[in-house]
Every structure is written in C-alpha cells, then in structure tokens.
Amino acid sequence: MARVTFQPGGVTVEIADGATLFEAGAAAAGITIETACVGKGTCGLCRVKILAGAEALSSYTDEEERHLGNLYHLTRVRLSCRTRVSGDVTIALAPRPARGPGKPR
Ligand code: FES
C-alpha cells in the first residue's frame, strides 16, 4: 500500500502500489483534482505539486513534458493521472496558472 497526503488539510488516503495520484484524489474525501479527460493524460489539468516523497513516484512521462514542459526540477508539478505511487508522498493541488490580460496565448 502507498499513502498519499494532500496539503493543506492533511487528508491521507491509502491506495494500492502502482495506483496514480489521480486515483488517490478520487479516493480522498473533500479533494477534487481538476480534469477534462478523466485521467487519460490529454487535458493537462490534473496538476499536483510534489511536497515530499518524490522518490516513491514513477518517472516523468512524455505527456507531462508536453503539458508541463521540462521544468519539474523547479516547479515540482506533475500530472496526477500520469504519476504512479509506490510509497508515501505528500502533495498539493496545483491548478493551471491563469493567463493574465495582455499575455500572448
Ligand atoms: S486528467 Fe487529464 S491529463 Fe490528467
């Protein structure tokens, strides 16, 4: 079993080894991970920030690089539906940054 703790609030859920952080979010009362593709890796909305336990996570995927770029070492943000867990981790929801007025799309 793996344990995923959501901050702030400290809600902790136990999930099977190899399950995704997205599945942990679905199992956690009061936690809603944003999604449009329901875990298929195409919408890029299910962002979470890794606060602790990164060594217990699967490798960064091509889908993550497409949606998040190659800045994980700075942002610590992953796509929850692409990230499998094999130990204890602590995460926070990381909504997509809003685009401000005047910024190019
Ligand atoms: S739920 Fe859409 S990319 Fe993860």
SSE layout and pairing:
Blueprint lengths: L1 E6 L3 E5 L5 H7 L19 E6 L9 H7 L3 H4 L1 E3 L9 E5 L12
Parallel strand pairs: 1-5
Antiparallel strand pairs: 1-2, 3-4, 3-5
The structure holds FE2/S2 (inorganic) cluster.
The site of FE2/S2 (inorganic) cluster has 13 residues, from loops.
Task: Kindly describe this structure.
The protein is of the alpha+beta class and 105 residues long. It has one domain: Ubiquitin-like (UB roll) (Roll). The protein contains three helices and five strands; from the N terminus they run ββαβααββ. The protein has a five-stranded mixed β-sheet with strand order 2-1-5-3-4. A hairpin with a 3-residue loop joins strand 1 and strand 2. The radius of gyration is 13 Å and the shape is globular. The model has no long low-confidence stretch (mean pLDDT 92).
Report the major sheet. 5 strands, mixed
Name the ligand types: FE2/S2 (inorganic) cluster
Question: Mean pLDDT, rounded to whole units?
Answer: 92
Residue stretches low in confidence (pLDDT < 50, at least 5 long) are none
The DSSP helix count reads 3
Total individual domains: 1
Head-to-tail CA distance between termini: 42 Å
Query: CATH superfamily name?
Result: Beta-grasp domain
What is the CA-based Rg, rounded? 13 Å
Strand order of the largest sheet: 2-1-5-3-4
Quaternary structure of the protein:
single chain
Short description:
The chain has a single domain (2-93), classed as Beta-grasp domain (Ubiquitin-like (UB roll)).
Question: What structural keywords apply?
Answer:
single chain; 105 residues; alpha+beta; Ubiquitin-like (UB roll); five-stranded mixed beta sheet; 3 helices; 5 strands; binds FE2/S2 (inorganic) cluster
